[in-house]
Amino acid sequence: MRILGISAYYHDAAAALVVDGRVVAAAQEERFTRIKHDARFPRHAAVFCLKHAGLTLSDVDRVVFYDKPLLKFERLLETYLSFAPSGWRSFITAMPVWLKEKLFLEKVLRTELAGVAADTGGNPWTGPLLFPEHHFSHAASAFYPSPFQDAAVLTMDGVGEWATTSYGIGRGASLTLQADITFPHSLGLLYSAFTYYTGFKVNSGEYKVMGLAPYGEPKYVDLILTHLIDLKEDGSFRLNMDYFDYCTGLRMTNDRFHRLFGGEPRKPESELTRREMDLARSIQDVTEMAVLRIARHVSRETGMRNLCMAGGVALNCVANGKLLRAWVFDRLWVQPAAGDAGGAVGAALAAYHVHEGGMRVVHNGADGMAGSYLGPAYSQTAIEAFLGENRFPFERLTEAGLYEKTAELLSQEAVVGWFQDRMEFGPRALGNRSIIGDARSPKMQSIMNLKIKYRESFRPFAPAVLEERVADYFDLNEPSPYMLLVAPVKESRRAPIPDEDSRLFGIERLHRLRSDIPAVTHLDYSARIQTVSKQTNPRFHALLKAFEAKTGYGVLVNTSFNVRGEPIVRTPEDAYRCFMRTEMDVLVMGNCLLRKEAQPPLARDTDWKTEFQLD
Amino acid sequence: MGSFLRELWAFMRERKKFWLLPIILILVLFGALMVLTEGSAVAPFIYTLF
What we know:
The complex is a heterodimer of chains A (about 625) and B (about 50).
Chain A: E1 2-7, E2 14-19, E3 22-28, H1 30-33, H2 43-52, E4 62-65, H3 69-83, H4 88-100, H5 105-120, E5 129-130, H6 134-143, E6 150-156, E7 163-171, E8 174-182, H7 187-197, H8 206-212, H9 221-228, E9 229-231, E10 237-239, H10 255-260, H11 274-302, E11 306-310, H12 317-325, E12 331-334, H13 342-355, H14 380-389, E13 395-396, H15 399-411, E14 416-419, E15 433-438, H16 444-452, E16 462-466, H17 470-473, E17 485-488, E18 526-532, H18 538-551, E19 555-560, H19 572-581, E20 586-589, E21 592-595, H20 608-611
Parallel strand pairs in A: 1-4, 4-5, 6-11, 11-12, 14-20, 16-18
Antiparallel strand pairs in A: 1-2, 2-3, 6-7, 7-8, 9-10, 13-21, 14-15, 15-19, 16-19, 17-18, 20-21
Helix pairs in contact in A: 2-5, 6-13, 7-11, 11-12, 15-18
Chain B: H1 2-15, H2 20-37
C-alpha cells in the first residue's frame, strides 16, 4: 500500500511517501523553493517523493493531510466569539484566508494534486482524502518509526486544532491518545511569546532562545510561574491570557506582559542585553520544569518505560537531555522532524496502521527514519556533469583518498562543505548537507558564526561524534542520531574557568577555552550531540574515523549547509553557490573535492545577503 | 460547495455544535464581504495560529 502524506498551509510544508508501512521518501518544500519555512502546498516535495519511488499519482492508494481543517475553524470561531468584540482586527485578517482557501481545503488539495499528477504522470486524484488530527499525526510520527514495540507517546507544540499537549500509548500497530491540554494554554506558544519578546522570529528563533539561555540567570522564573503560567504538580497548566495577545491580536504578547518584564520587546537585530539572556534562561528553566512534570505524569499514568515524543517543543533538545538524565523513562526517542513537517510522515503512517490496519514491524534496535536521510540524492555522475558543464575545477578522489584528504584538510582548520547522498528530512543537517570543521580549534566557533553562516556570535555549534566513541567525550551512553539530546562534555575534558571570569558578561565569557573540543562546548559545558553510526551514514562515519586516525579525535563540528535565513542546500548547484558566497575553504560533493582558491568568481550573483530573509 | 456543506453538516452533528450554524452563516457573510472588498489572502500574523 502506497500512502502520500501532506503537511501544509501553516508552517513547514512537507510531503512523505510511505510504502507498506515504511517511510521511503520525505522532504520539506522549502528545500525546493528556497523559501525558508515555505508553507505552500508541497508540490515539488510530493513530486520528488513519487519520482523517487518510480510512481505516478495514480499508483498511490491514499492521500492524507496532517490535520482537520473544520476542527481548526471551530477553534477560530469559538476563540473569536469568546473574546469578542476585541480581536476584530485579527478576525478580519484571518477570515479571507479561510474563506478563500482553508475552509475548502479538500477542493484546494485536489487542485494542487492535479498539479502533482501533471508533473509525475498519472491521473488527478479522485479517491478520498484522509484528515487525521494534528496531534495524532505528531503522535504517529513519534511512535510508529520508533524502535519500541510499546511506548508512551507525548506530543507538545504551539497548537494543532485544539490540542497543544497530548499523551497516549502505542502498542504494536495501535496508537491511542488519552488526554490533552487545549488552546489557548500552550507550552509552545508560551516559549514562542518569549522568542518574540526577546526579539527573535517566532517559529524559527526558539533555537536561539535555547542557545542564549546559558548566558543568563533564571531571574524571572518566579515572575513567570506567578503571573503567566499556573503549572501544577502533574504537569498540567493554564496560561493567564491577560498577558498574551495571540488570541485576539497579531502579536504574541501585550502591554501588560511588557510592563511585567519592564519594557517593550527587543527590536530584532538590536544588541542583546543581560535582560534577554536572563529571560531566555528563565523561560528555558520553566519549560524544562513543565516537560519533566508532564513526563512524570505520563509515566505514572501509562506505566510505560519507553517514551516517544514529537511536536515543536520536542525539538528543545536541552529539555530532552534533562528528561533523559532524570530517568523518568528508560529510553527516549524523538522524531527528527518533530515540527509540522514531520506531520506528513505521521499522517501517512497513521493512515497505514490505523485506517488500513497495516502491520507494524519493529526492527531490532533500529528506528524507521533511516537516519532521516529521506530526501533527494545526486549521483557522482550528476555532480560531475554539473561541475563539468560549468567548468568548475575539481579533483576526483578515490573512496579511501576522499576521507584521507578531507580529514587532513579539516585537521588544518579548513572549513569544509560536505555534500553526500540523500538530503536530510527535518530541521537538522546530519552529515549529508553539512558544513564541518575541527572541534579542537579554538577559533572555529567564531569563524563559522561570522564568516560562514553570517549569524549571531553567541550561537553554539553541535558536535558529530562516532557513535561508538560518544561516551569518551560526553556524559551520554546512548545514541543521539538526530541531534536531539544535549549532554555535558565529560568532566575530564573540561578546562577550569578562572574565578575572574564570573565577572565577565554575556558573549565575553564565550572566548575562554572550556574543553579540549572548544568549538562544540557551550558556555555551560553542554553539547547538542549527533552520534554517527556506520549503518545509517557510512560515509560520514568513515570521514570521522579518518579524522580520528589523524588527530586522535573522533568528533567534528557539524552545522547545516546554508547561510542564515537560507533553507539547507538540496542540489549541487545550491551547494556550490553557498560555498562560493561564504568563506568556506573546501567543498566535497560525492567524490569531488573543490578548493575555493581554484574557483572562478561567481558569475551573475545577486546581492545574496538580501536574498534571504533573516531568520 | 454542495460537498462542503454536507461535510460541514456532518461535522456539526459529530461535534454536536449546531449552535455554531447561525454564527458560521453570519461570519461567512461578513467574510465574503471582506473578501470581495479586499485582495490579499495572506495573513500578516506573527505566528499563524488560525
